[in-house]
Design brief:
470 residues, alpha+beta, 4 domains, 6-stranded antiparallel beta barrel, Helix Hairpins, elongated, 5-stranded mixed beta barrel
């Protein structure tokens, strides 16, 4: 190899080595520049992350709604007339008149049918005559009382007259005795004859006999007075009997009138005729004669309807009179009617169902006895409970317990709550939180007790009110 060729090769090797060194130098500088840039970016981003961590997680919160949640039940409902009465005849007779038929609208007190009962009409006339006769007897008894009272007064006067006459007779006897004593003294002194003394003695005996007769006259007058008093009592007793007879006569008259009134069949309430069994001229037998008589008419009250619903056992304790209800009727194209729960049976049947009744106004007479539909009853709320969206309960401890997060002093606090009902979208909270608490509505980010949080602006809302069924 020539020297010139060797020199050329050496130059090429130095050039290659210089290129390698230059490439390594450029690569090192670039690597240092990249590390410096990444480090600068990391330095720039670190304060922002730390600031966000110090500020807290942004959450949405809701306010519990007082009054808990309303529970509704939906059950089949059968519609019946509020009242239904079979009208029978209480007396026998021929059907004389009947102006109503099936479907006729009736008013309370309206005469629906009339029977021909001539015997009952005559019985009323006879009873009226007996009343007049008894009234005349009462008048006669009153007159007899006046007569006997007058006789009693006369007898009392006779007693007083006899007593006064006795006083006169006693005075006369005493005077005769004194005169006899004086004459007897004169006879003893021989100043008067014995004949005069005998005459005075006769006067004493005569006065004594008259006095005794006066006593007898008093006894006779008193006896007459007693007889007059007895006559008065008898007359008063006769008057009592006459008045009693008058009362009996009046009772017979009223009974006859009632029997006659039974010949008219009267509407017991406003409603509609749903059954007619006879036509004019038919012989109608009294329902009191035994057997199974057929009613003349059947009437039903339809201004208000009675809706019967069977409530399941689990909802019985929440059912109260006055609960609102909505009845949807299949036969009317699903039309709904508003009503209230009026009566509760307070007893369950063998299938653990309790009968309740809803009063449903029927002003348009659209509802008919026997219709079928469904009833939605809004059950009683618990006034001491709160309502929350179901998503606020992040854990469930059995059927009656759960966990929710509440924002207090900027921190999320884990609160154990006692739960009540659950309608799928909302839960009822019995205890654990208050209406003023801000309950976190989780949005997928897990929370821990004591974690710092920030309430999203404009996100603190009241739990929405449940819509009522229409």
């Amino acid at each position: 190899m020539s020297p010139s060729t060797q020199k050329t090769r050496v130059k090429l090797r130095w050039r290659q080595l210089a290129g390698v060194l230059l490439g390594l130098t450029v690569a090192g500088v670039g690597f240092r520049l990249m590390r410096h840039g990444a480090h600068s970016q990391e330095i720039d981003q670190r304060p922002e992350s730390q600031a966000r961590e110090q500020e807290g997680l942004t959450v949405d919160v809701v306010r519990p709604r007082p009054g808990g949640i309303s529970r509704t039940i939906q059950q089949p409902a059968s519609i019946h007339s509020f009242e239904s009465v079979d009208l029978y005849a209480m007396v026998s007779g021929y059907l004389k008149k009947q102006d109503v038929d099936i479907g006729s609208r009736i008013k309370k007190g309206e005469v629906l049918a009339e029977l021909d009962v001539p015997r009952d009409a005559k019985a009323v006339e006879e009873a009226a005559s007996l009343v007049e006769h008894a009234r005349a007897q009462v008048a006669q008894a009153q007159v007899r009382i006046k007569v006997t009272l007058a006789q009693q007064d006369t007898a009392a006067v006779a007693v007083k007259a006899a007593e006064c006459d006795l006083t006169r007779l006693v005075s006369r006897r005493e005077l005769a005795q004194k005169q006899y004593q004086r004459v007897s003294g004169l006879v003893a002194e021989r100043a008067a004859t014995r004949l005069l003394a005998d005459e005075q003695q006769l006067d004493v005996e005569t006065a004594t006999a008259a006095e005794r007769s006066g006593y007898l006259e008093i006894d006779v007058a008193k006896a007459k007075l007693l007889a007059a008093q007895a006559a008065v009592e008898q007359a008063e007793a006769d008057a009592v009997e006459a008045r009693a007879n008058l009362g009996v006569a009046h009772a017979h008259l009223e009974k006859s009138k009632v029997n006659l009134d039974y010949s008219r069949i009267v509407a017991p309430f406003d409603g509609v005729v749903t059954l007619r069994s006879f036509h004019p001229g038919a012989l109608i037998r009294s329902a009191t004669e035994g057997g199974q008589p057929q009613p003349l008419l059947t009437v039903k009250r339809t201004g208000v309807m009675r809706v019967v619903v069977l409530v399941p056992d689990r909802d019985v304790v929440l059912t109260r009179p006055g609960d609102p209800a909505v009845v949807t009727v299949d036969a009317l194209g699903g039309r709904s009617f508003q009503g209230t729960l009026a009566r509760i049976a307070r007893a369950e049947d063998a299938e653990r169902l309790m009968r309740v009744e809803i009063d449903l106004p029927n002003p348009e007479n659209l509802l008919c006895d026997g219709m079928y539909g469904k009833a939605i009853i809004t059950l009683e709320r618990n006034a001491h409970s709160l309502a929350l969206p179901a998503a606020c309960i992040v854990e469930h401890n059995g059927q009656a317990g759960g966990v929710a997060f509440v924002v207090r002093d900027g921190l999320a606090r884990r609160i154990e709550v006692k739960l009540g009902g659950d309608n799928g979208t909302e839960v009822e909270v019995v205890s654990g939180i208050s209406p003023d608490d801000a309950v976190v509505a989780p949005a997928g980010t897990p929370l821990e007790d004591g974690m710092r949080v920030v309430v999203a602006a404009g996100k603190t809302v009241q739990t929405p009110t449940e819509p009522r069924p229409r």
